[in-house]
Each structure stands twice: as structure tokens, then as C-alpha cells.
Description:
The structure holds 2 protein chains of 2 kinds.
Chain A lengths: L3 H28 L3 H26 L3 H24 L2 H5 L9 H19 L10 H21 L3 H22 L5 H28 L15
Helix pairs in contact in A: 1-2, 1-5, 1-6, 2-3, 2-7, 3-8, 5-6, 6-7, 7-8
Chain B lengths: L1 H16 L8 H24 L5 E4 L3 E3 L1 H24 L8 H24 L3 H19 L5 H34 L7 H7 L5 H19 L7 H8 L2 H21 L6 H28 L3 H22 L2 H31 L11 H4 L1 H15 L5 H15 L3 H26 L14 H16 L6 H14 L2
Antiparallel strand pairs in B: 1-2
Helix pairs in contact in B: 1-2, 1-4, 2-3, 3-4, 3-10, 3-13, 3-18, 3-19, 4-5, 4-10, 5-6, 5-10, 6-8, 6-9, 8-10, 8-11, 9-12, 10-12, 10-13, 11-12, 11-17, 12-13, 12-16, 12-17, 13-15, 13-16, 13-18, 13-19, 15-17
Amino acid sequence: xxxxxxxxxxxxxxxxxxxxxxxxxxxxxxxxxxxxxxxxxxxxxxxxxxxxxxxxxxxxxxxxxxxxxxxxxxxxxxxxxxxxxxxxxxxxxxxxxxxxxxxxxxxxxxxxxxxxxxxxxxxxxxxxxxxxxxxxxxxxxxxxxxxxxxxxxxxxxxxxxxxxxxxxxxxxxxxxxxxxxxxxxxxxxxxxxxxxxxxxxxxxxxxxxxxxxxxxxxxxxxxxxx
Amino acid sequence: xxxxxxxxxxxxxxxxxxxxxxxxxxxxxxxxxxxxxxxxxxxxxxxxxxxxxxxxxxxxxxxxxxxxxxxxxxxxxxxxxxxxxxxxxxxxxxxxxxxxxxxxxxxxxxxxxxxxxxxxxxxxxxxxxxxxxxxxxxxxxxxxxxxxxxxxxxxxxxxxxxxxxxxxxxxxxxxxxxxxxxxxxxxxxxxxxxxxxxxxxxxxxxxxxxxxxxxxxxxxxxxxxxxxxxxxxxxxxxxxxxxxxxxxxxxxxxxxxxxxxxxxxxxxxxxxxxxxxxxxxxxxxxxxxxxxxxxxxxxxxxxxxxxxxxxxxxxxxxxxxxxxxxxxxxxxxxxxxxxxxxxxxxxxxxxxxxxxxxxxxxxxxxxxxxxxxxxxxxxxxxxxxxxxxxxxxxxxxxxxxxxxxxxxxxxxxxxxxxxxxxxxxxxxxxxxxxxxxxxxxxxxxxxxxxxxxxxxxxxxxxxxxxxxxxxxxxxxxxxxxx
Lengths: 226, 482
């Protein structure tokens, strides 16, 4: 029979492992050219977020985080990918994006820089007693930054939407560690908000495809200061 | 009670607008009626809040103090004008499905106003964030109402940049929650946060605040994150431009300034400097972009960025007088900018092209629009005897009294450049020789009424400030004045 202390330390390490994989998934999202692969990585990332929420729920002994985990699985692993697949035609997903703004090695280097920046930014904020937040906060902020970078570097509509969702995942990965007791209403409405975001962007992409004839939103540059 | 009623009325109106009918009258009529009802309730709320006691509908969830009431009453008062204007301005689009598109416009319009009013009413900060996010999501399809490639491009940029900003702000809000919990706070409301803010570690407070400022700033068109704003303005229907500018210069500053009272001491000094810096940057960039602008609606978009900058500087100067001037500037800008956009709508009655170069000699060819546009330009650029002059003057005075000469000097310079740029473009549009004979239509009542509604306070505030309004401004200024 294991005592409580060693159990806690094992769970903390498992959580650190999950966070490491989360960070890896952020890099994978930068490196993937194929749009469907991007979506799959997002699903994996959402699963990792849910796993981390469960582990932290055990550590902080609050059932609240288990609810967060189930909401995450329902919204981000099931409904959002389904909505994204439904709203945009299949041939968009089969496409390989060859014309990114930057090539992949450069993108990965920038992502690495952003991750280091996130660690540098958060380390002075963390007291010695922060516990799992020591890993979750910097990894979450790195996820936020890299998600923003994905949006900037991609020209296709769907990867840009996935970038937004990845930013949200990053914010939540940090959130479950530093705000585990934030009211459930906030979590529910945030999940609802995520769904509406996807619905709005999905519909918008569909209309752009119909009226403009492309989903390469990065190439829309009619409006500018001349 | 009034607060719940206002939100419910708008939600019900949004639903009713969707009912399919043969005629195009019901949806705008419902919108105007709900607008009037909401404005009446808002005036009641404002009168109560002007006495200094917040109006509470649900304790710790839904309440409105003086600052919130100021925003609520202004949005809903001008909302009446905007709904009347929509009735005249928004025509049923040609082609199949045009009628249902128009109904969806009014549905989203009501939801947009509802989310905008919800921001100052919610007291739970996480819900405020949701309401802010809803202002984006309800307005995306209003921006691309015209269904042209340009409109979709504008809507996409708007949606992506503002949603990104909202998530960055969410991270900041979570950091503040963390700080509040570690400082032993209870409920995550504005008051709960302000109470424990002095005990929050300064690092967390600063990082949280800067993330919120940058995140919300990108939603408010704060330079250098403003690139989506002129695009969205140039494509959105005129009534939507008005509401977008309210989000940028009223609701977002409201949320940022709400954090103000708790940011005292050394942290407060740095955050004040950030506000002044970003404010001056916005005002400066907007002033120079105003010189080269070629599109009529983009011109007023840059003017919105400029005023957003002035408001940030005003609050960043610190002190009660500066807080009062920031609240005053928020109010005068909302009134004046809506007047300007109503005038732009009138111009677009005769000129089908938004390019400034294609508008000439309006005063002669269509005096109603020409005079309105010229008055609007003078008012928004800050010429006396209009309200913006008074508020800008109070900002400068507050800065000079507290000895911040550099900030005030730069602000005066940027205001002067904007003034010259705005007047240069407008004098060419108003005077000069018309390109050809123009069939000037009779001024429609749906344009005259909103212009009148906004012109009255725009001019009258120079002579007379109603007592309750003044006390709202003073109380709001005290909230910001630390």
C-alpha cells in the first residue's frame, strides 16, 4: 500500500509529463502542414488538458476539476472537431498547406523562442510553494504564445481557427492550476463560448469559401492603407 | 429589476425579429420599440445610480454603479437614434433570401446591444469577459452584412484579432484570480478584487494587468493592434460602425478602468505610465494616418482610435480630476461620433462611393448632409462650441495641474494634427465644386431624428449639464481617480 505522500509525488510527476506532452503538441501544431493532422493534434492536446485537469483534481482534492475535464472532453474532443468537420468541406482538410508565411524549421525556432520567453516571464511570479502551477503556468503561457504564432504563420482558415482554440487550451492549462476553484458557471460559459467561436468561424469560413472562392484567408489583402 | 428587464427585453426583441413576415416593417419597429423601452429603463437606473448607491438586481452577479450606469444610459440613449436610423438606412437586400437577411440583421443588432449593455452590468469578472466575447461574436456577421469579398476579409480580420485578444485578456484575468485567492479574497467580483488588490504580489498584478490591457486593447483598436479596425469600419453598415466605436471607446475602457482603484502604490505608477504610453501611441499613429486617409468611413475609424488614445491618457494621468475628464471624454465622444456616422449615412444617400475624393461640394448639392458632416467634423475634431472641446480641455487641464507637461504637450500636438487633417478632408467634401448635378433627395425623417437626438447634447453640454449627469460623471471619475 502506497502512502499519501508518494502518491502525491507520483501524480505531480505524471502531471509534469502531461504538461511536457502538451508543450510537444504545440510544437507539432506548428510543424504540421496537413490540415487534418492539425485538427488531430488539437484533439490530442485537448485530451492532455483533460488528463492534467483530472490529475490536478486529485492533487487539490476538488471534484470541480473533474467536471472541467468532462466539459473539456465533451466540448473540445467531441463537439468542436465534429463542428469543424461538418461546417467545412472535406477537400479543404485533405489539402497540404505549402505556402506558409515562414518555412517549418524557422517556425519551430520561433516557437522555441516563445516557449523560453513564456518560462522567463512566469518564473518570477511563482512562489516556491506553487506546486503543480510551476509547470502548468509556463506551459500554458507557452501554449498561448505558440497558438498566436500559429495564427500569424498560417494562411488557411482552419489552421487559424485551430490556433485560436490552442490559445484557449493554453489559457485553460494554466487556469486549472492557478484557479482551480473558479466557479463552474465560468467554466460552462467558457465552453459554451468556445462552441460559439467555432460555430461563428466555421460559418464565416464556409461563406468566405462560397463568396470569395478560397479558404486561404491569409491571401485576402484587398483592404489596406494605400 | 430594471437591469434584468433591459436584458430580457433585448433578448425577446432579438427573437421576435426573426419571425418571418411578408413586410419589412415588424423587425425594425420591434427594434425601435425595444430601444425606447431600454432607454427609459436606463434613465431610471442612471437617476438611481446618480445618488451614489449602486442599483443591484442580483447581489454579486448583476449590479450597476455610477460608472456602469453612465455607459448603460449613453449606449441605450444613442441606441434609440441608431435603431431609428437603421430603419431608414437598412434596405432589404436584392435577391432571394433578402428579407430573412434583413431579419437576421435586426436579431443580431439586438443581441449586440444586449451583450454591450451586459458588460457594465455583470459584476463577476469571468462573466464580464464572456459578455465582451459575445460583443465580438454577435457583431462578426453584422460586419460582413454586405457579403462582398471585402466585407468577408474585414470580418475575418476582425474576428481573428479580437478573439485572440480576448484569450490573452482571459489569461490576465486568471492571473488576477490567482493573485486574489493567494491574497485571501472571496468572490471574484469587481469589489472583491479591489478589496484585496493591495495584498496581491505586485508581479502577478502587473503581469495580469498588462495581459488584460494588451488583450482588450487589441479588441479596442489600441495602436499598434489597430489594423483590423479601419477595415471593419469601412465595410460594416453605418449603424454597426456606431456600436463598434462604443465597444472601443466605452465598454473596453470601462473594463480596463475598473481595475484602476485597486492598483495603488508603485504598481499603480507603472500601470499609469503604460496607459499614457499606449494612449499617446494610439493618438499619435491615428493623427498621422488621418492625414493620408482616402475613405470616408476609415477617416472616422482613425478618429475613434485617436479618441480611444485620449481616453487612455486621461485615465493614466491619475487623480480625480483626470478620472472625471476621462469619463467626460467617453461621453462626449460617444455622442459626437454617432452624430458623425449619422451624417456619413446621409452623405451616402447621394454619393454611392465612400472615397473622399468622390465627395465634392456637398453644402451646395445636398445641404442637409453637407452641413451635418461639417458640423460633425468640427465637433469630433474638438472645435468649440461642441462638447468634445470641453472634455479635451478638461483632460489637458487635469494633466497640467498634476504637472505632466510632456504627456500633455504630445497630446496637444496629436490633437492639433488630427484637427487639421479632419478639417482638411472635410472642407474639400463640404465646399468645392460638385462634380455634376446631384439629385438631392428630401432629408428622410429616419435620418433627421437621430441627428437631432445626438446634436442636442452635443451642443447643449456647452451651456448646461444636467445635475444627475454631472454627479454620474463625478462618481465615475472618483472610481478611476484612486
